[in-house]
Specification:
This protein is α/β, with parallel strands linked by helices. The protein is 29% helix and 25% strand. The strands form 4 sheets. It has a 7-stranded mixed sheet, with helices on both faces. The longest helix has 15 residues. The radius of gyration is 22 Å and the shape is globular.
Length: 375
């Protein structure tokens, strides 16, 4: 299955066999995914552009630049090369770029960094499916098919305020102990549960083994609290919903810097922080727009795109433009995309269309719900 929220993969090789494998990967993946970048440090291949962009700087410098961009990195070579290259730039498990290693024969693919929040584990499984390589997953909760709080947070668009609690929760799960979860009243999704229905008081749903739901607000210390309320809780992990969706439109070729300055000016005006962004959304014609892809990648916000027909089906009153409709088939992109990306739970426009120098922005606030996906 193609991983969600994957917006860029930088592949680097060091040998002729590795360069050939990288070239094959680009051919396999390029048909499905924007933003595949192939690099090589192989001396024999560096003069042949077919094998990728030549890297003449140290591998660590190359890795640092890619990690600052939040690009996914795939090293085709030894694990030691990857570890030494990324070591100076590893900072935070919730923010680090995903890093993987594949041997030059393409036999194994190993997620090394940011397996859950960055999606390295998911990407490894995808690469294995596409190439026939064996995925080498070392994350204990994945190996034992146990509940992982950081993966739960990512799947549900939640921000983790205290990442130090991840180890405590995972240790309890792996030791066979019960983990308690309290979710703000009215925000647990039951409509997507398909089997194994469990009733626990007023809650319902498929619960992973070892997880017990308790009423909100919790009357005693719990392991995990999911809430939008600004109040203290005695919990190992506190999860906050990402409430806002950005609907964006822009002229072709707008840079990340231009878009970032435009967006952040409006976020600051409303007192919204980058971690509160659930997604950015636009029309399908902007699917490969580099500036939007980079903003999405750097801010770990999924980039969702919709057809003109899908946008026209969104209910509401929007600021329509005959010119825009003539260009893309729908009279308003940013407002409709923002509301559409709020999903089935719905949302409302918080900021109507803002326009500046070939860029447009609207902001919607979504109704949020969380769902357990089983073991």
């Amino acid at each position: 299955m193609k991983p969600q929220n994957w917006y860029g993969l930088s592949v680097i090789s060091f040998t002729q066999n590795g360069a050939r494998l990288a070239k094959r990967l680009a051919q396999i993946l390029g048909q499905e995914q924007e933003g595949i970048f192939i690099y090589t440090k192989c001396r024999e291949c560096i003069k042949d552009s077919r094998f990728g962009i030549p890297v003449k700087t140290p591998a660590a410098q190359w890795a640092g630049e890619r990690m600052r961009e939040k690009s996914a990195l795939l090293f085709i070579g030894a694990c030691g090369i990857a570890v030494r290259s990324i070591a100076p730039f590893v900072t935070d498990k919730l923010q680090d770029a995903p890093v993987l290693v594949m041997d030059e024969q393409g036999r194994y693919v190993i997620p090394v960094l940011s397996g859950h929040m960055g999606g390295a584990n998911e990407l490894a499984l995808y690469l294995a499916e596409k190439t026939g390589a064996a995925p080498v997953i070392t994350t204990a909760t994945d190996l034992n098919r146990k509940f992982a709080v950081d993966l739960f947070a990512k799947q549900n668009g939640l921000w983790m305020e205290n990442k130090e609690g991840i180890v405590k929760v995972s240790s309890k799960i792996l030791a066979g102990m019960e983990v308690t979860v309290s979710i703000e009243t009215g925000h647990i999704e039951t409509g997507h549960f398909e089997a194994g229905h469990i009733e626990t008081g007023r809650f319902g749903g498929v619960l992973p083994k070892g997880v017990r739901l308790v009423p909100y607000p919790p009357a005693e210390p719990v392991d995990i609290v999911v809430t939008s309320e600004q109040k203290p809780f005695a919990a190992a992990v506190l999860l906050k919903p990402k409430r806002y969706v950005l609907g964006v439109g822009c002229r072709k070729g707008k840079s990340y810097g231009e878009l970032d300055a435009f967006i952040r000016k409006r976020l600051d005006m409303l007192g919204i922080q980058a971690w509160q962004i659930y997604a950015i959304a636009s029309i399908v014609q902007k699917k490969g727009e580099p500036g939007l892809l980079e903003w999405s990648r750097r801010n770990r916000a999924p980039f969702l795109t919709y057809t003109a027909q899908e946008l026209k089906s969104v209910d509401g009153e929007f600021l329509e433009s005959a010119f825009v409709k003539g260009q893309v088939g729908v009279g308003n992109v940013c407002e409709r995309a923002a509301v559409k990306a709020c999903g089935e739970s719905g949302g409302c426009l918080l900021l109507h269309k803002q326009a500046e120098n070939g860029m447009t922005l609207a902001i919607a606030k979504r109704e949020w719900k969380v769902c357990f996906y089983g073991e």
